[in-house]
Protein 1
Amino acid sequence: MSELELHPLLSHLPEDALKEFTEWCIFEQAIAAGFEFTPDNSRLEGLLTPYYIEELVDQFVTATRNSIEGGLAALLAGKKADAHALQGIAIVVDFISLYVLYLVPKGKNNTLTTDEKLVEASQEQYNKLQEISQKYVTS
């Protein structure tokens, strides 16, 4: 499996770009794979961007980790995100992108093999991060 590395890009993006990518990972990629999640918006309202990201990630992980697949995805994502040694909110975004990446192949809507889905999901994340970064980062 050839996993695209997102973490070198994350620390260079503004918080709004990280928020948009986090929302895409959760609300589009994970839900498209078949994971159900409805955030408690009352706990998200009025939060500054870093706290919003942390709260949204916490709510999603809490809602999806109560399975063997979810627990394993959290363990793998946490270990890998720690190894990337990012600072600030970028480490939370790195974690959620990895968590979703490892969770997606186990989604009820997946029809591909695990390796095929990992490659596809990794490419989707990379492409989306590139698209978002172009909106926020100017040359």
Protein 2
Amino acid sequence: MTETYSGRCLCGAVRFEARGQPKGIFWCHCDSCRRHSGAPVSVFVGFENDAVTVTEGAITTFKSSPGTTRGFCVRCGSTLTCATVHFPTETYYCVGAFVRAEELKPSKHVFANEQLPWLHLKDD
């Protein structure tokens, strides 16, 4: 049986389902993710593009930098996605948007060289 992960934005205008095994789950410390989310660090889960279906509304996108497209809810502003030309068949979704976010535990850090110096995370 294929695993299904349901997610949505804060207001519920955008809802989506991801099926199958995640491609990866990671902490992202890059400056762009901080600015997009307003948080000191983001946590993303990647899925193949064809494994995700938007079931309600639409994810609004914009090109945040060369080769990177970010997605959000146009109604409430929830940060939802990040896609890059480096992984053209995958999109990365904010873990906090998923109903069962507690099951999506990150296993690595990316752009660790950009981590804020006062942020100390306890990784198991």
Protein 3
Amino acid sequence: MLGNTSRNVKAALTAGVVASALLIPTAGSAAASSSGPVVTVRAVDPNTACRHHGKNYIVRTYFRGPTKYTLRCGKSSWGWKHIKAGHGWNNTMNKKISAAIWSGKFNGGGFSTWTASCPSREKFRTKIGTPAGRNDLRTAYQVSSLAAASC
């Protein structure tokens, strides 16, 4: 009888380990990512896309937890066209936007990244909300003023 109990315990433990392995996402999977910015799945070149699509076309998607924020082609006053014309667009800008939205502090109308120094200084700012949608990126830019938070 003891042999059967031992075998039953081993079988139950083995089944539990196998089930856990099937349910726990691997380090490379999207579900396993618990930190760091998540850049859009869409690999559209905004320059090309916005030449061929209207102002409401989405060229980038960013996330803050489950909340989705989008960057649309826009116009001279908001969106990708505004950012490109007024602040410049490249892969670094895209990464800064992603980092600010993913882990930045709320700034009253978007998200900002700050230095780790004391006092902390705002270094990059996004503003959210456009005529096309409330979770759309209006603008994003490097902060040049010396806005500081107390220690």
